[in-house]
Amino acid sequence: xxxxIWINYKxxxxxxxxxxxxxxxxxxxxxxxxxxxxWLCKDRKTEDVVKIHNGRxxxxxxxxxxLVDMLFRGPLPKGxxxxxxxxxxxxxxxxxxxxxxxxxHNALHMKLQYTPEEWSRRNLLxxxxxxx
Length: 132
Known about the structure:
It is a single chain. The protein has 132 residues and is an alpha+beta fold. Helix content is 27%, strand content 34%. The protein has three helices and eight strands; from the N terminus they run E-E-E-E-E-E-H-E-E-H-H. The strands form three sheets. A three-stranded antiparallel sheet has the order 1-2-3. A hairpin with a 2-residue loop joins strand 4 (50-53) and strand 5 (56-59).
């Protein structure tokens, strides 16, 4: 069993009348778990911050798996995306996340939609119908 490692993530804002203040204080683990310490939002309580939206876990507007990847691997290069290896969008464990280019990601999901025979036929049709 892998040991759980936690990283703290804070977002701050600067007030026009005073110093910087903490808007959110969140702990994120390599296993995809989240602990919310502080959340300043007029409509939400701290315990209601992590939501499931369109089958994915979110903290406010931030996807949990993006936070896990960013905190443990650094910023995501432009044009790259984070993919769930097991195709389960609720499994945000670092071991389940892989970085790939957007085109690699799109190609992978196209392959997953079709059987190998359908994939070959589709590629052949695209090749025959290409613009010359």
